[in-house]
Design goal:
280 residues, alpha/beta, Rossmann fold, Helicase, Ruva Protein, domain 3, 2 domains, seven-stranded mixed sheet, two-stranded antiparallel sheet, 11 helices, 9 strands, 31% helix, elongated
Length: 280
């Protein structure tokens, strides 16, 4: 895979990119993206189609999309023959989306995805999610047990999801995700592929849920608590961060871990073993 970022097509005008002259936006719904929703609109259909291709969407599958925006990814998914359940919170986009996709295989839910509590059954999630609420969305997707999740997120945030021990990006989020899924980086996307142009570049990841680690865990809630506490003060040792739980001397010595070790030095299997050790 090339190390270059995918960029928006330079040959189209900005308004053509955004679709303001096309069938989607008429004068009644021509609205700017809203900062309070963390909106930036993908403008390059090639990137949307590549996301769909690399997510291995098959005809007839039911796909969850979070944040339909102006429908560029929605359209690419429908072209692939998928059935869609698509969330959009911005009321100013409702009529435009319903008009553009009238009669097609998409059910729009005009509501905040995080506050939606009804059960929905989908095969995969393919989404360009709002960057300012990436973590709560990701945790909800794990809770829904969706087997395959392909998402576009901020590049620096993406690096935390697949970071390895003893690296700066390795964090409690890295461990949380690694316990539940395999993460594959698909490609980077340049900030110029969006309108308005954000201050960050993006990355598309494919996250495949697996029960490999959690099947070995005696108490999942305790494990998540241990991981969270372990990274709560990065400069402190693991023993100091967890001193309220139990004496870790025996565990550290048994597993060849220094008493001065910090959380970023422990692997996922170390955290699983530590959690099981502390179960009473």
């Amino acid at each position: 895979m090339s190390g270059k970022l995918l960029r928006g097509f330079k040959s189209h005008s900005l308004r053509q990119h955004w679709g303001l002259k096309g069938p989607f936006f008429d004068r009644s719904v021509e609205k700017l993206p809203k900062k309070r929703f963390g909106q930036v609109f993908l403008t390059d259909p090639y990137i949307a189609r590549r996301m769909v291709e690399e997510s291995d969407v098959s005809q007839g599958e039911t796909i969850l999309e979070i944040g339909a925006g102006k429908g560029i990814l929605t359209e690419a998914l429908l072209e692939k023959g998928a059935n869609l359940i698509s969330f959009e919170i911005d009321r100013d986009l409702f009529e435009g989306l319903k008009k553009k996709f009238n009669g097609q295989r998409v059910k729009f839910i005009f509501q905040d995805f995080l506050s939606f509590n009804e059960r929905i059954k989908v095969d995969k999630c393919v989404s360009n999610i709002p960057y300012n609420i990436s973590t709560p969305i990701l945790k909800k997707l794990f809770k829904m047990q969706i087997p395959s999740i392909t998402i576009m997120i901020q590049r620096e945030y993406a690096q935390r999801l697949f970071a390895k021990p003893r690296t700066k990006a390795y964090s409690s989020l890295s461990v949380f995700v690694a316990l539940r899924a395999d993460v594959k980086k698909l490609f980077d996307v340049d900030r110029n592929a969006f309108f308005p142009i954000p201050n960050v570049d993006s990355t598309v990841l494919k996250i495949t849920q697996t029960n490999r680690w959690l099947s070995l865990v005696k108490d999942e809630k305790l494990l998540d608590k241990i991981v969270r506490l372990s990274f709560s003060h990065r400069r402190k040792t693991l023993k100091n961060n967890l001193k309220g739980l139990n004496d870790l001397t025996y565990f550290l010595k048994k597993n060849g871990i220094s008493e001065k070790a910090r959380a970023e030095e422990l692997s996922v299997d170390n955290f699983v073993e530590l959690s099981n050790f502390l179960v009473r």
